[in-house]
């Protein structure tokens, strides 16, 4: 079975194009280093829930939208090795310093799939 990293962030609406550009660059680097898939999505049908929701989870404001992303790896060991390479890749160093979203509100984690169809 594969291994998946998942992410949810609030992106200011006036920085969506910068976020898309960053995602394209980052995706190319992750894939080059061995990720099997790199997917970035912007909210389309994501209501603000009364108790829980994607917008609530990242404290999205009216001037922000939610991005939901995931990266697929062959295994947890591959994920750890690939992420080490990506984090030291000089092509992303400037991007890491000036992210087009508030990284403090990012939700992220690694997941072991148990169903893959």
Automatic annotation (TrEMBL):
<dbReference type="Pfam" id="PF07237">
    <property type="entry name" value="DUF1428"/>
</dbReference>
<protein>
    <recommendedName>
        <fullName>RNA signal recognition particle 4.5S RNA</fullName>
    </recommendedName>
</protein>
<dbReference type="InterPro" id="IPR009874">
    <property type="entry name" value="DUF1428"/>
</dbReference>
<dbReference type="InterPro" id="IPR011008">
    <property type="entry name" value="Dimeric_a/b-barrel"/>
</dbReference>
